[in-house]
Amino acid sequence: MFQKCGFADATSELKDADYVVVGLPFDSTASFRSGSREGPEAIRIASFNFESYDRYYDVDLADLNICDLGNMELGADPTYAKENIKEGIALLPEGVIPIFLGGEHSITPSIVEAIAGPGDLGVLVLDAHLDLRDEYGYTRFSHACASRRILEIGGVEAYVSIGIRSGSMEEFSFAADNQISCFTSREVQEKGIDQILDLALKKLDCERLYLSIDLDALDPAYAPAVGNPEPFGLTSWDVKRVIERVASRAVGLDINELTPAYDRGETALLAARLAREFVAAKAKHSKRDR
Ligand code: MN
Ligand code: MN
């Protein structure tokens, strides 16, 4: 009779969970539109729009063990948030697949650091922006530095970004000088997402892959409510395809940069749908492996 709040179909306890939803409401390095700390709640509310059954994957999310842990308490200081994210992740049971709801993109390096472990972990970032600044607004933990910090964890071999169409001249030089794999949205437009994914996944020759979706990778036509909207982006079909192709080896996902105050609901709906896509795609694979 009473519905538990949180992400739709997340009715499991942590001890039984195969998937955990974690909100990371941090947004104090926002450089244009702020308010992404309201993102996790907006995504949770939007998640109730959808059927629990996913026809394409033939998976019913109501049959899966999903737990919504709620939001981490992250405050406003980037170094405090970083330590809390790492401590929080350390408490997750081994083997559980986390889905992190941002918050701004500055949450991702801490997540990657926490789950990298001794084995090789590849990181695939979808983003309009290079995020390769060494420092921005007097902090190295700004969302404008997200990819730079991720690269410092696993090196250039373990990193690919797709959807790029914005950065400073220095960032583009840094990317070229360090042979960083960053595929532009123009390349996706010209060659198709599958061909770009072939190249990206060949480069990320790893068993464990982490997917970070900065929602501004999508064209503002699909995802208008983001911190730094940038035209000429990916389509929702492109991102669906990325999720489908990486799900089998994905060990986690984050969806970041949603700013609900600028939304009429469509960006939150897409974010929620992408999270559900990810769970359904993963569940389909584990069903097949069984
Ligand atoms: Mn970003
Ligand atoms: Mn971005």
Overview of the structural elements:
This protein is α/β, with parallel strands linked by helices and 290 residues long. The chain has a single domain, classed as 3-Layer(aba) Sandwich (Arginase, Chain A), CATH 3.40.800.10. It is built from nine helices and ten strands. It has helices at 39-47, 78-90, 108-116, 146-154, 169-177, 185-191, 193-203, 236-246, 266-289; strands at 19-24, 53-54, 59-60, 66-71, 97-102, 121-126, 159-164, 181-184, 208-214, 250-256. Helix 7 (193-203) packs parallel to helix 8 (236-246). The protein is globular and about 55 Å long. The site of one manganese (II) ion has 6 residues, from loops. Residues 127-129, 214, 216, 228 line the site of one manganese (II) ion.
Keywords summarizing the entry:
290 residues; Arginase, Chain A; eight-stranded parallel beta sheet; two-stranded antiparallel sheet; 9 helices; binds manganese (II) ion
